[in-house]
Amino acid sequence: MFEKEPLEEDSPLWQMDNVIMTPHNSGATVHYHERAMEIVFRNLQDYVQGRTPSRNLVNLEKQY
């Protein structure tokens, strides 16, 4: 994502060999929903059983 979208045609990012430009939906795959629901269900199961959910947690110290 960029501050201004679409990315300007003269942006140097378009020419960089170490940059891969993808659309926002590039993570969508045939199995996306199946895998996402697996994470949700496992985290929900952890929560219901009194455990801290363990999948795809945000690390506030590392800010991701």
Question: How would you portray this structure in words?
Answer:
There is one protein chain. The chain is mostly helical and 64 residues long. It has a domain at 29-53. The chain has 1 helix and no strands. The protein is elongated and about 55 Å long. This is D-isomer specific 2-hydroxyacid dehydrogenase NAD-binding domain-containing protein. Residues 2-25 form the D-isomer specific 2-hydroxyacid dehydrogenase NAD-binding domain. InterPro entries: D-isomer_DH_NAD-bd, NAD(P)-bd_dom_sf.
Please give the alpha-carbon distance between the first and last residues: 15 Å
Sheet with most strands: none
The count of strands amounts to: 0
Tell me the overall shape. Answer: elongated
Give the helices and strands as they follow along the chain.
H
Mean pLDDT: 90
Unreliable runs, pLDDT <50, ≥5 residues? Answer: none
Supply the number of helical segments: 1
Q: Name the helicity range.
A: 25-40%
Radius of gyration: 18 Å
Tell me the fraction of residues in β-strands, as a range.
under 5%
Question: Which secondary-structure class do the elements indicate?
Answer: mainly alpha
